Amino acid sequence: MSTAILTGPPVAGSPLEADLRTLGFDVRTANDATAAAELIAAAPAQERVAVVDPRFVGHLHALRLALTDPRFPAAAVPGALTAQPEARAALVRAAGKIPVGAGTAHLTDVLTDTLTESLDHEDIGLHRVELGSLVATVALTPAQREDAQEAVAAVDDEAVRLRTAVKSRDGFFTTYCISPYSRYLARWCARRGLTPNQVTTASLLTALIAAGCAATGTRGGFIAAGLLLLFSFVLDCTDGQLARYSLQYSTMGAWLDATFDRAKEYAYYAGLALGAARGGDDVWALALGAMVLQTCRHVVDFSFNEANHDATANTSPTAALSDKLDSVGWTVWVRRMIVLPIGERWAMIAVLTAFTTPRIVFYALLIGCALAACYTTAGRVLRSLTRHARRTDRAAQALADLADSGPIAELVAKGPASRGYMAAPLMAVAGVAFLMAQLLWKDGGSWWPVLGAAIYAAFSGAAVARALKGPLDWLVPPLFRAAEYGTVLLLAARADAPGALPAAFGLVAAVAYHHYDTVYRIRGGTGAPPRWLVRATGGHEGRVLVVTVLAAALSPSGFTIALTALAVVLALLVLIESIRFWVSSGAPAVHDEGEPA
Q1: Which parts of the chain have pLDDT scores under 50?
Q2: pLDDT digits (tens, 9 = 90+) for 455-493
């Protein structure tokens, strides 16, 4: 139970108190700012406190958005505001500064608005709700109250609530084939007390069952797998819509939603590979290649966004052209579809699974993702080269964290740093090129790849020796990911031993989880995983060196066993630390936004 304080002239017959109780507030009254400050201070420390003008007229959903959203320390609409525990001290100070008595009516006529303005100057992250078509106002006269009530009656706030539960920017398939009915499924779940995390878990279980069906290798299993994968995606959309509909945002929920998406897709790849093997077709290399390509695509997205989201003077002719194209209706959908977002991608996988073979599924996936990667990366390179952005220290640190450099790179980075605004990506490209040349040129069992890994480690350390603030420095983390994952894929493929590629799939999955976890921690504002974890896992360059040494020193069967053991050890390390962090995390609640109300 939270506390709502009504402060102002009472209004007979107003449904406001009932609405506040519906939202879970214990309603109190205060005659002036001093009394309000006393009630705020007296409320239990762990509770949120709301201050509401009794003359408030508006939609219940406007109050819900202002008073119950857990993502913001303080939020407000005209006539109502709320403060979570971390912002309550500022609210008490604001109320204490307002004088009481004759001559102060201009400050206390609408006390909530005065308090809101004061909180604005406190720099505590006050959120002013975008109301859109919703109504929230303070009616000072009977005529104003009548007009406001008519405006409330003219808008169906439940329809607005359903509409805004859907993300404002989504893919074509999701927008037109899923969201028109999944929003009603989200409302059904909300009315039965289900939480977004429960729906997220149901989506994961459905996808795992789909992977199991695909692993049977039968046509009936493939058809069932495709249908279940689509239903898993419906639930995947529903969990976010339920969170936005009921404002049940949480750090844990954001992490589960993002992490389970990757787990579902990559588990399905493994299921397809197992099913193909039952039919005598070995597609593990294709499955691993699809996972590597998809993960590298995501790292490109993450790195570019982290490098540029808070940069100043962040404009370019390429970005202007992109905005212009988005103003033309049909180009918006073409450009959203060409990048093969999750909706289109899963729909393609599901249909091809049901009607073709796993090999064709992976061929289509690799071709589609490769084209999408070329399109998005080329566009971002052009933007970076034509803009004159000044990147911040925070962005440089985020890129350094995404690089995942281990002890060897750290040691090399202590030496003299290369100069030039293109030094970092050029160093990374040089290291990756030398490594790939050794892997592709020499026999898999030779020691030449070990030399390539050692040179790669030296170049990777030189790439991060200075702050990553150059225009193309965001390419450094995805280059490192491509080098590490590609090394495991090539060495496992050339080992020509039963189980080598499935073991490599498990190893890359464990490392990819670590890299995704790093991204979501940075997005949550909590920084990267602890340095001890990065050092314990060896960093990307350390793992590359270890894998090449194992490939050179062991027999093919021994290499397979070593890859399996390494996958298990790394998975345990990163999973235990990740679960510990997210379960106990004090990070602010985050979730993808829906449309403005």
Answers
A1: 102-107, 444, 594-597
A2: 999 999 999 998 898 889 999 999 999 999 999 999 999
CB atoms within 10 A of CB 33: 23
Q: How far apart are CA 112 and CA 129, in angstroms?
A: 14
Contact of 205 with 183, CB cutoff 8 Å: no
Strand partners, 318: none
**Within 387-463, where are the H helices?**
393-403, 407-413, 423-441, 448-463
Q: Rounded to an integer, what distance in angstroms lies between the CA atom of residue 179 and that of residue 176?
A: 6
Q: Using alpha carbons only, give the angle 280, 282, 286 rounded to the nearest 5 degrees.
A: 150
* Helical residues (DSSP H) of 279-311, grouped into ranges: 284-308
Nearest to 550 by CA among 596, 495, 501, 473: 495
Q: What is the model's pTM?
A: 0.90
Q: Which of 564, 523, 487 is CA-nearest to residue 402?
A: 523
The dihedral over CA atoms of 207, 508, 369, 349, expressed in degrees to the nearest 10, equals -20
Residue 575: name the closest of 544, 540, 533, 543 by CA: 533
What's phi and psi for 51, nearest 5 deg?
Answer: -120, 125
C-beta atoms surrounding 295 within 10 Å: 23
| 184 backbone dihedrals φ, ψ, rounded to 5° | -70, -35
Tokens representing 380 are 């971002």
CB neighbours of 536 closer than 8 A, spacing ≥ 6? 573
Residue type at 37 in one-letter notation = A
Q: Is 75:65 a contact under the CB 8 Å cutoff?
A: yes
Dist CA 200 CA 188 (whole Å)? 15
